[in-house]
Amino acid sequence: MVDITIIGAGVAGLCIARELRDRGASVQLYDRGGAPGSHSCSWWAGGMLAPYCEAESAEPEVVNLGEGAAHWWQDKTGLVNSQGSLVVSQDRDQGQLRQFARRTSHFDHVDRAQIAELEPDLGDRFSAGLFFSSEAHICPRSALTALHQSLLNDGVEFTVAERDPTDSSKAGLTIDCRGYSARKELTNLRGVKGEMLMLSCPDVTLSRTVRLLHPRIPLYVVPRGDGIYMVGATMIESSASEHVTARSLLEMLSAAYALNPAFGEAEVLETGVDIRPAFTDNLPRIQRDGNLIRVNGFYRHGYLLAPAYARKVGELLFGQTDTEVPHEHSA
Amino acid sequence: MRDFYGTTLSNGLMLGTAQYPSPAILADAFERSGASVATVSLRRESGSDRAGQDFWQLIQQLGVRVLPNTAGCHSVKEAVTTAHMAREVFGTKWIKLEVIGESDTLQPDVFGLVEAARILAEDGFQVFPYTTEDLVVADRLLNAGCEVLMPWGAPIGSGKGLNNLFGLRAMRAHFPDVPLVIDAGLGVPSQAAQAMELGFDAVLLNTAVAKAGDPAQMAEAFAAAVQAGRLAAQADPMEPRDMAAPSTPVIGKAFLS
Fold first, then answer.
1. Do the beta carbons of residue B13 and residue B34 sit within 8 Å?
2. CB–CB of A190 and B55 under 8 A?
3. What architecture does CATH give domain A3-47+139-183+281-330?
4. Mapping DSSP to helix (H, G, I), strand (E, B) and coil, where does residue B21 land?
């Protein structure tokens, strides 16, 4: 059995641990912050598994590698919500919607009545939209916790401690998944600040991710169930991660309000801010130097791309094997 | 060619650095267009502890002149503070001065603009004010110490092109020695060519390139348009007229004998 140490138990570390464990490796996980929680950038994510929407501004690779994400997450956690995603814009921004449609695929045009049918609480507020029926989302916190728990159940050792990847690689095969904390070693990594909020708004029922296109404040709302919504997220070229700024808060809230004025009555449960790790092309990288493999740069695509990169790491270490087949049938 | 505070630029294309899909595509846009100036806006929260330095380093690696921008400032005080921060971060006296007066159209608060320009010019800054085509305001800005003026084409990010041709022509005619830059509102390259044909010295744009499906190719297209417009302006274009004039008049026609 190959012994592998993974440092960093965010979405990248946990997906890779899951994939390698499923390929029969003996895995040890280290995270200085402990079990999945607010110390991890992945905790604050939207959890959208929306490769086709991302095509609007992301490289084609993001679409290709992200297509299998929903299947992977469903296979490993069973927590995927596959109601699709809905993209709308206000009447004066119809140009934005046309442009979005030109740059994406796998959607149907929906009119006022169809939007109201999909999401009654958007009512007749939007006259046109795009419905991406094959997209999905997952609650990041439940997903991380489920992966973590399943790994513990499978005998993966989890240590709450800081571990230096270079030191660790002297002892054995090590995978560095520390995200922005690896900035010192990865000098071309940069931080992109993201801010989000959690709202409790039982007055509004949305059953899928809704993106509101807007020339200044594009925004998405992801339902977390029980009237709770995640609203996000800003993208700021900064690595300061202390607090949400008043301006960002104002912009996110006014966009949510534009989606449905009932969001004005919502309670703000929490605000979150963290730093996305990104390389200059905003695509993740796997870099190998002997016993040390660094996987980083997931930018805003952690949940979408970590499964594909976990598979890549698996293939790097074990060669091509089919992990699509669930465990119990593979023998 | 008119110079900008003593600096002669290799061409009249100034590009903003916000909103690109990635810094790699941003760098590509600069490489393919050969743009001579990069504008960068600072958020004060990033300036305070240099938290934005990862990105600023990328901008400095572009190898073009950096024109820091007080984008999004709504008061004189904010703009002046941001300008000081920008001078410290980028080590340049150049500052693009924006004082926004109206949040829907993002049009400049010309009163605050003149005041902020005076404060900054007295402090040694070389100010590039984002203004309207108003001649009186332009005059006040020059008196306040500005040696460059940057009138809008149309509201920021609107892509509507040159909204007030009469006003812009009047401005060019009124200030023949002042370097003038069309800043904001351009959507497609033909509008940049038009600005250059009117005799403007440069154009400054961001959204039209950054939000194009292929930003690098759009940047190259704008560079070609800027060059075409400049060549045309220097070539003294013909005057339009109402009466048709045959391009091959009978009198001049060659004949076979």
1. yes
2. yes
3. 3-Layer(bba) Sandwich (3.50)
4. coil
Tokens of A324: 């699509």
Identify whether B160 is a catalytic site residue. no
A61 interfaces chain B, CB cutoff of 8 Å: no
Do residues B127 and B106 lie in contact, with contact meaning Cβ atoms separated by under 8 Å?
Answer: no
CA-based nearest residue in chain A for residue B27: A280
Residues of A in contact with B213 (CB under 8 A): 102-103
**Nearest CB to A239; choose among B23, B27, B54:** B54
- Give yes or no for a contact between B83 and B74, defined as CB atoms under 8 angstroms apart: no
CB atoms closer than 10 angstroms to residue A235: 16
Q: What is the pLDDT of residues A17-45, one digit of tens each?
A: 999 999 999 999 999 999 999 999 999 99
Q: Does B51 sit within 8 Å of A239, measured CB to CB?
A: yes
pLDDT-derived band at A70, boundaries 50, 70, 90: very high
**pLDDT at position B89:** 86
Quick: pLDDT tens for B24-47. Answer: 999 999 999 999 999 998 876 555
Predicted ipTM beyond 0.85: no
CATH of domain A85-133+190-278: 3.30.9.10
Question: In this predicted structure, what is the pLDDT of residue B246?
Answer: 76
